Amino acid sequence: MTDNLRPDLALIARTVRQGARVLDVGCGDGALMAAMRDHSGVDARGLEIDGSNVAAAVGRGLSVVQGDADTDLAYYPDASFDYAILSQTLQTTRRPDLVVEELLRIGRQAFVSFPNFAHWRGRLSLMWGGRMPVTRLLPDTWYDTLNIHHVTVDDFRALVKDRGWVIDGQWFLKGDRETTHANANLFAEHAVFLLRK
Amino acid sequence: MASVSISEDSRFGLRRQARLAGPLSLSSGAQLGPVDIAYETYGAMNADKSNVILICHALTGDQYVASDHPVTGKPGWWWRMVGEGKPVDPARHFIVCSNVIGSCMGSSGPASIDPVTGEPHAMRFPVLTIADMVRAQAALLDHLGVDRLAAVIGGSMGGMQALTWPTLFPDRVESCIVIASTARHSAQNIAFHEVGRQAIMADPDWRGGDYYADGKVPSAGLAVARMAAHITYLSEAGLTEKFGRRLQGRDAKTFGFDADFQVESYLRHQGLSFVERFDANSYLYITRAMDYYDIAEDHGGSLARAFTASRARFCLVSFDTDWLYPTAESRVIVHALNASGAQASFVELSSPFGHDAFLLESPELNRVVDGFLRGGRA
Question: CA spacing 20 to 30 A to B361: which of A83, A121, B83, B343?
Answer without folding.
Answer: B343
